[in-house]
Design brief:
The structure is a homodimer.
Chain A lengths: L4 H5 L9 H9 L3 E4 L11 H8 L15 H12 L10 E4 L1 H13 L5 E6 L4 H9 L2 E6 L11 H5 L6 E7 L11 H13 L3 E5 L25 E6 L12 E5 L2 H13 L5 H11 L6 H19 L15 E5 L5 H10 L6 E4 L1 E2 L13 E5 L4 H21 L3
Parallel strand pairs in A: 1-10, 3-4, 3-5, 5-6, 6-7
Antiparallel strand pairs in A: 2-8, 7-8, 9-12, 11-12
Helix pairs in contact in A: 3-10, 4-10, 5-6, 5-9, 11-13
Chain lengths: ~400, ~400
């Protein structure tokens, strides 16, 4: 009696697996700067907490499978403000962006189906691929050119008869890259030519810097039937623990099918939907200072790292991550060493080895992902400690 | 470009698909007694609401994938009070019992694997079977003998080389049957003999009547490595909208594998976990009056129905459902007619056609499921209206 193959093979979260070393460092009294995960320190907005205090029901009962209509309307309205004329009929509330990914994978592909995803990519796509028994076909991008998408022919070379969809994440976790309209249109022409779906993870939509803005795949009429958008309030409203996301589509067949998947799990959490509603009803200028804060942090991080000899990176245009190549053969060893063997005045830093963001074997071993989720002062200190640790490591271990 | 086969084939919730007819009846000003779904009217306990008001965080952040330790400890303690010596290392918090079912299916079976489930069964098992691409093999039980389990040979006749597990739900939704220790032991000997897992949905554990008590599969040492229990606070604490459940296992491999599935969806909702903790910390006598209330309702329903000519049913021992066979060929037609064409003094009743609880084609067409989730007075009135409707229907449509 063995557990299933998928149960054995599903990847352990590469982000979480080094956490025990950080825990032990903390037990030894060392302060760890956590710039490894995308947990924002931005306070959850006050209207969310007020909605929580004002929640008033006698029975905490089931809601509709597709989510409460008011919330679906509020999300539609949020997109309308971006000139994307959604209605609640295009929006299904999900349990986090995670479930939106899972539903999207299941609705486009049967077991054995393939989904092309530029790598490095958000590692939890792997978990859902195992869950849904679909195969992720990586399209390898490179830190040298800032993870830009390759020419159409290179994307097309990944297509097989089993390919069902291409997934883009923009602004990108883990690279911080925001695809240009030209890049989106390149992919759109590929999905049209080869009759594929296009899934877009747009959860970092609000986090685009330098006055630029995010372009959604929902803005392209030519793929109205092919577009599936994965959305979430986690980062947008600093509500990671709420587990409220959405899957958005113009395609009525996709909507109906996802609705049936949604019925199987009954409904998203009721209380957390009501606080999400409060978040969406805030004024849009809520995002302005937050965007400015992250842009400042990005600049602090980028400027702080750029004089490291041998470092390769590009300035991120969005989200709050950067992938950097270090003059190190095995960054997982380095990250662990920083937690087990190094401290500077009782401080150390935890970043994430980038290997787990690649599905091509051996890729990303000399890269790390850094999340700029700390306040400026802490981030500056973290960068200083990181650089000192890196120097020490390089002096101990030759490349 | 078509959506996936699983996306097309996943069953629409048979419980929810007649809801639009009820909505229309209400729009016509008719009062509908809803005894079709298991949404208890019992108020969510006060400590839960107090925990909600007292929730105090700055950032609604991610929790651990396996759920908060305090809640896992509280659930373990709840079972310890039943002399089942669990620790937090046996408990993973899930997003509702639904996710616990999904995880269980995925950890025991790969796509194409088979799980034997006595039918009629909780219809959402179908949704998760589609999701996980496992095949449910029904073991057909009968209303005539109160849905008791058949001899071991009949269960064994369903086993193929692809069989991975047997799933039991006790107290049962939709039949109200509580399996006896002898029935459990019969199934346990089958899973041992054929090297299978045993999944038990025990969410109605507290709802057992006439002074009897529920026996968990966790109490059998001989299947410590084979037992997986699906649990939920939805009915136990009248918290259906919280979406907090648990999967419980002694088997460390299963625990580790489910933990990896859990990491893919990051974490269960944080606020709802904290209110679940408050529920589990209540005194155990919380359940006494609730159990009495449901037992009274069961008796009211059973006594109210038993003089219907041609009816076949057995008195449920647990949960809050009953399956009754009516002298009607097509109960879906009857249920719809009750909503579209019938009313008694502007009142009508919605029950659920039982066909959707069977996966064997054609089974259950002459049965309905009734949930006794209304207060005594309302339930009595609902029974009266139901019987009048039934008489009228029988006079219009011969069998």
């Amino acid at each position: 009696m063995n557990i299933s193959k998928r149960g054995l093979e599903i990847q352990e979260s590469p982000i979480r697996k080094l956490k025990p070393f950080a825990d032990k460092a903390q037990e030894r009294g060392i302060h760890v700067f956590f710039i490894n995960i995308g947990q924002p320190d931005i306070p959850t907005p006050q209207p969310v907490w007020e909605a929580l205090k004002n929640y008033d029901e006698d029975v905490l009962s089931y809601g509709p499978a597709q989510g409460f209509l008011e919330l679906r309307q509020a999300i539609a309205d949020y997109f309308v403000a971006y000139s994307i004329p959604l209605t609640p009929e295009n929006v299904i509330i999900t349990i986090g962006g995670s479930e939106a990914i899972h539903f999207s994978f299941c609705v486009v592909a049967d077991p054995g189906g393939e989904i092309i995803i530029p790598e490095p990519f958000y590692t939890n796509y792997n978990g859902y691929a195992s869950f849904a028994n679909v195969k992720i076909v990586p399209l390898t991008l490179s830190v040298e050119d800032g993870f830009r998408l390759p020419p159409a022919e290179e994307i097309e070379a990944k297509i097989t008869p089993k390919t069902r969809a291409i997934l883009l994440c923009s602004p990108n976790n883990p690279t911080g890259t925001v695809y240009t309209p030209e890049e989106l249109e390149r992919v759109i022409s590929v999905v049209e030519k080869h009759d594929l779906f296009l899934i877009a993870d747009e959860v970092y939509k609000e986090f685009v810097y330098d006055g630029a803005s995010h372009k959604s795949i929902l803005e392209y009429d030519e793929i109205k039937d092919r577009a599936i958008v994965v959305d979430s309030i986690s980062k947008r409203f600093s509500c990671c623990g709420a587990r409220i996301g959405a899957v958005i589509t113009w395609n009525k067949d996709i909507f109906q099918s996802i609705l049936k998947f949604a019925q199987a799990r009954l409904c998203p959490p009721s209380i957390e939907q009501s606080i999400a509603l409060a978040a969406y009803r805030m004024e849009r200028d809520y995002f302005v200072p937050i965007r400015e804060e992250y842009q400042k942090r990005r600049d602090v991080l980028y400027e702080g790292l750029k004089d490291i000899p041998g470092i390769v990176m590009h300035k991120p245009q969005g989200a709050f991550y950067i992938i950097v190549r270090l003059p190190i053969k095995d960054c997982e060893h380095f990250v662990r060493w920083m937690l087990t063997d190094f401290n500077l005045g009782n401080e150390t830093v935890m970043v994430t080895p980038a290997q787990g963001f690649y599905s091509s074997s051996g890729k990303g071993k000399d890269e790390v992902r850094i999340a700029y989720v700390l306040k400026e002062q802490d981030l500056k200190r973290a960068i200083h400690v990181f650089k000192e640790g890196l120097n020490k490591y390089l002096s101990l271990f030759s490349k």
